[in-house]
Amino acid sequence: MYRPKNSSDEANSEENFQNHIPHTTITDTRDLKNSINNNKNINTTANQKYGAILSIHGGPTAQERPYYDYSGLYQYLAHNGLVVIAPNYRVSTGYGKSFERRIYHDGGGNELMDLEYALKWLLSKDWVDAKRIGVFGASFGGLATLSCITRLPGYNWKAAVDIVGASNLVTFVNTVPEQWKKFTGELVGDPVKEESFLKERSPINYVDAINPTKNLLVIHGANDPRVAKMNLIK
User: DSSP per residue over 66-86, as a string?
Assistant: First the structure.
């Protein structure tokens, strides 16, 4: 996790405003160690509240780590007064194959609960402004972003950014490259035999829950070979 630093801190000290939570699988029953570096630079007595962003990694079989690919963005956001939490939810790599496979045939299920509990943890902090909560992600993270704002609308999302995310799982499994189709039945679901299940987990079917006064940015490539633009159009 990355938190803002106070204006009195050294201007360019990464140590002062970078904090990382490598394990945030909050609802998992196994004893996973949660490592939280408490940032002493937040003045909790000043009644200052910060906006917060939930960052969802793609993959989904990937892992949030303190690399520079997103860390530079996180540091920029923290430097400008925003908290960023980037959890390793169920399916993240690095915790064993059984943990990784918990997403199989359960997209939009338990991993969405993990993301919700990460958000609940954030909102339990008196230095987080519940009126300024955002979410973003790419690929599976984009799908999860859409799931957050459509299936968890009660959190009053202020803004969301979906980057090449699938909104309709039926469309997604029908339009992936041919070499992917032998895996999508196991990972996502069968579009013929399990159409109702896939519709239940598709953000597009909950779009009416999005507050029209909030901000949603969708970024998608017209020639994306993996997540076809039909996912956007539908």
Answer: S-HHHHHHHHHHHHTTEEEE-
Q: Is residue 183 part of a domain?
A: no
180 or 42: which leads in pLDDT: 180
- Sheet with 82-85, edge to edge strand ranges: 82-85, 50-56, 128-138, 159-163, 215-219
141 within a domain of the structure (yes/no): yes
- CA 233 vs. chain centroid, Å, equals 22
- The answer to whether residue 69 is domain-embedded is yes
Q: How many domains does the chain have?
A: 1
226 is a domain residue: no
Tokens 């169920």: give the residue.
90
Contacts (Cβ under 8 Å, ≥6 apart) of 154: none
Cis preceding-peptide flag for 225 (omega within 30 of 0) = no
State residue 178 phi and psi, 5-degree precision: -55, -40
CATH number at residue 88: 3.40.50.1820
pLDDT tens column, 14-71: 333 233 333 443 333 333 333 333 343 555 556 789 999 999 998 877 788 776 666 6
CA angle 108-166-88, nearest 5°? 50
pTM of the full structure: 0.79
Q: Write out the residue range of the structural domain in which residue 149 sits.
A: 14-165
